[in-house]
Each structure stands twice: as C-alpha cells, then as structure tokens.
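[Meeting: bench + compute handoff]

Bench side (C.D.) handed over the final construct sequence. Compute side (W.E.) agreed to return the predicted structure before the next meeting so the bench team could plan truncations. Sequence as handed over:
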Amino acid sequence: SLEAVKKIASTDKDYRVRCNGVRALSAFTFDESQGALFLALGDENINVGIAASELIKNKATVNYQKEIIEKARASKNWRVQADLYETALALASTKELIVEVESIYSASENDYQKSWLLGSLSKTVDAFPFIHNELITSKVLVIKSSAAQALVDINHHADFSSTHKKDFASIYRQALDDGDPGVVVSIASALSD
C-alpha cells in the first residue's frame, strides 16, 4: 500500500531500502506520492535524495512547479538541484527561471554541476544561445560535451522551430571543427536524424 511504501522510503535504517522505497513510489500518481518524494529530497543520504529527484523529474505535473522550484532553491546538493530545475523548466519555462539557472551555473566552480545545469537548460529552446556560448568558449571537456548534448536535445524539442535549423547547422559545423570527440559523437547523432 502507499502508506507502507511511504514509511519504508522515510524511516528504514538502510539507505538502500529507502532508495528502493522512493523508487516504488513510481507505482502511484504524483499527487499521491509527492509529499513523500519532497520529504526524501532532504534525506541524510544523498542517494535517497537523488532517487527522489529523478522520480520527480519523471512524474511531476505542472501543478507542482512552484513547489519544485522552491525545493530546487533550497537544495544543498547540486545534483538534486539540477534535476529539480530540469523538471521545472520541462513543465513550464520562463525567462526568469532560465536566468536563475544560468546565474547558478555562472557562479559555480564545480564543472560537474555546470554539466548537469546545462542538461537542465536543455528543456527549453530559449536557452540555446547560452548553451551555444558554453560549447564554443569552454575548455572543460565535460562542459563542452554536455553543452553539445544539450543542443542536440533542444534540436529534438517539441518547441524547436524550423527557423532555428540554419543556426543549429552553423553551430554544429563550428563544434565539429573543434574536434572534441565527445562533442563530435553528440553532434553526429543529431545529424544522423
């Protein structure tokens, strides 16, 4: 039952069991499970929080976007935070939210956090100038490859306008000329479509 799964997700002594309890919440609607998922974001073990943020990413509805943004802002873990921002941007992107994520990115000194935030920004076509700039200017391989993948994801986004095709072709050409293997692999997958 839902109550039994919620109890396991929040009180079991073994974090691995709590993680599995969180994952088991996927069998229920987001309305039914959101309280337990939001609680799990703050678990003492980060793996439980990550499991919760990943499930929120897959199950959340727009009715909870405001709360998801609040949880992202309050998160002490960059991975959980990036997942929650990705969710919020996928539900309904706003210029203010894009700028907020870009600001966190710019203030970060953690290349892996930056990489995950680029993935978050891939949920909105409006972030492509920022992502393009990071692809071209960054010398950090994980950032370059994440930026390339984010652009490819945008290219497949439902809101991607055919007016952007020429811009993206130029970006892809420029990225391929750089020769970074991670970037080349991502871009090649987009070009094969």
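W.E. noted at the follow-up: The mean pLDDT is 93. C.D. will use this when planning the next construct.
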